[in-house]
Fold this protein.
Amino acid sequence: MTNIHKFAHISDCHLGAHRNPVLRKLESTAFEKTMNKCVDEKVDFIIISGDLFHSNIPNMAVVNEAVKKMKEVRDEGIRIYLIYGSHDYSPNETSIVDILDSTGLFSRIVKGRVDDGKLKLEFTVDPETKARLVGMSGRKIGMEQKYFEILDRESLEKEEGFKIFVFHSAVTEFKPDFLARMTSIPISYFPKEFDYYAGGHVHRRIEEKWKGFERVVYPGPIFAGYPQDLEQSAKGEKRGFYMVSFEDVIKRVEFVEIPTCEYSFLEYDASNKNSTQAQEELQQKIQELNVANKVVLLRIRGELSGGKTSDINFSQMRKTLVENGALHVNINRFGLASKEYTSLKVMGEDVREIESKLLKESIGAVKVSNQNLKGEKGSKLALELLDALRQAQKPNETKKNYGERMVNQAIQVLELNEAFK
Ligand SMILES: [Mn+2]
């Protein structure tokens, strides 16, 4: 008789994503609860499919806390395997993930090299269960696809035993509608017949199958990397991770919910109202919400028939909610505009969407011969460049080093040359 083994599949922890002290505390609570559950359930190992941290060099207090927790887990004999995500990976800088990998706290399971134009990956074998793991890192848009294209799938498919493929990309066939614009990898680029495909990057819980791919699973974030994640949670999306039991094949796959806090969500359409009406109605609705000890998300949208958007007193609303006991308030009004005073022609759900729409609209005016700088490709590249240059100077970083880092990142984005790691 064989032993039943167990592993936990976690993704997108985004530790260090929040500056707000309340959200930061919730984020760390979610991680702590997740790790505790893994210890209680006596899992053999944990897989983290990318974005453990929100950036490659996160706040050290956040790192310290996470390391302490993971050390506790390791002291119970539980192994931790992970890959970079798109957030904690940097093409030209050492990531905190590399440092912690060097200490043996966890092991980064992306091992391989490009040989004769083929990407050959090596398996990491878990010493106790003999599960065989292979990982593909998340990275800059464009590069992940390139590596998938040259992946030597045959050698991976030939390997015997219980096999897990760990990745940090959206799969084209399973991409939720709201991610329509996200780069994705067709399922045909993945090696077939692995026992489990441990996905990350898509911030939604997904369990899918396809011919030759029995179990493609995304746990989604354990808490939230972005305000949209909070909004999804507020709308009822459950957060947590997957627990998988196996012998030589999978016996059971189960989602373990990790509830971190309660939410309250209000969506308000201000269309055909003037600013005074909208203000009054909103204030009224807000008073009626039960917000005590909850994270409150407001989404205000529509086009005001009169008055300015700035006539609406959002700080007063925020104050009311806090007075009524809200833990934290997030007001999204990117979709709110005014008929009389519209200077913005572009509306969207968030900053990124607005930027992307603006770039797409304006790219036609760019007069260059390089095809990569034109059309869809060009606007994508511009968006990436914007992301790279948006990063703030780090605490201890000199102006000179910051300047150099920005230049290097811009070069990386534009030339897209990097080593496989
Ligand atoms: Mn993520």
